[in-house]
Amino acid sequence: MDSDASENNSVPLDKTNDELQRSRSPLETVAEEAEGYQPILVTPATEWKSLPLLVEDSSRVLLAPSLQLALRHFFTHCGRDVIEISRSDLMIVLIYVIALETGLIPKGGSLPPCCRPGKHHTTYRSFDRRLVNHFASRLPLDWFGARAGPYRFELELVHESATSSNLSCTLVALSSGDLLIVNLLPFYGQKAGFSVTVPISFHVPAVNGNRLPLCYQNLSGLSVKLKNELFVPFRNHMYSKFVLTISPSLRGLPQELVGRVMEYLDEPARRKLMEVLTMLPAV
User: Fold this and answer.
1) How far apart (Å, rounded) are the C-alpha atoms in residues 241 and 279?
2) Tell me, what's the pLDDT at 158?
3) In whole angstroms, what is the distance from residue 223 CA to residue 94 CA?
4) Residue 6: what pLDDT?
5) Rounded to whole angstroms, how far apart are CA atoms 193 and 200?
6) Do the bridges between strand 151-157 and strand 104-106 make them parallel or antiparallel, or are there none, so unpaired?
7) Which pTM was predicted?
8) What is the pLDDT of residues 7-55, one digit of tens each?
9) CA torsion angle for 254, 255, 258, 260 (degrees, to 10)?
10) Distance between CA atoms of 182 and 184, rounded to whole angstroms?
11) Angle ∠(277,281,283) on CA atoms, nearest 5
């Protein structure tokens, strides 16, 4: 009897494996499913190198999930017909996702509960897939309102150890023929901004609302270029001045490591080092 009962209550192996695979997929919320995000089916034979994580991993066959999510959100909620959407619009969507990957979010954006500072969680420093996917489906559509003028929107870095509450910047992008001139202007802390020029048609060959991967090409070089020349220099500048705990400098070192360094210095050098460590960042 016990044997019969256990057989009646057993679950087919195929069904169990299917549930396991679906539970391991990166689909995290019903909201993402509603936005058109399709989970990647994970199996023991999955080739992880073939799955895109960042924008630079995208191909003409498969976009990074965050870029696909943002693009689907834009096509669904922009309120325009496909023929009214410009290649520059799609370039701004792309730049937005690259900014998310570098640790920026829309200024004033509310962090999801899983990423808010607390006992077990700290605000992210750089790439956090949870935040990237969260804000990818919350692309501010008012950035695309001024059709004739430049694109202009504000982004910010968020960190609970920052000595300033506004690590923000303004991104201004202006179309000139087939070029998009992108400028990143820090709110404060640096007098000069960062600028880069991007060929539009080379990276956005078409506006295709049905086959999203066909909207972009050659993303590897573009993503690295924007990160290296815009977002990473801005992030490093802000972190070095206003987030001392992760600053790549003496003031960012743990106290126990500073103590070990002190042991190798003579008294004049030790005093100079203490002056550096106690110096407040200029605002």
Assistant:
1) 11
2) 80
3) 9
4) 40
5) 22
6) antiparallel
7) 0.71
8) 444 444 444 444 333 333 333 333 343 344 455 565 666 555 667 889 9
9) -110
10) 7
11) 170
Q: Can you point out the beta strands (E) in 10-121?
A: 104-106
- Is the distance from CB of 198 to CB of 180 less than 8 angstroms? yes
pLDDT in tens, 193-217: 899 999 999 999 999 999 999 999 9
Residue whose token pair is 């001045």: 241
Rounded CA gap, 2 and 142, in Å?
A: 64
One-character DSSP codes across 103-171: TEEETTPPPPGGGSSSSS----SS--HHHHHHHHTT--GGGG--SSS-EEEEEEE--TT-SSS-EEEEE
List the structure tokens of 34.
């509603």
Q: Other CB atoms closer than 10 Å to residue 104's CB: what's the count?
A: 28
- First and final CA of the chain: distance in angstroms? 78
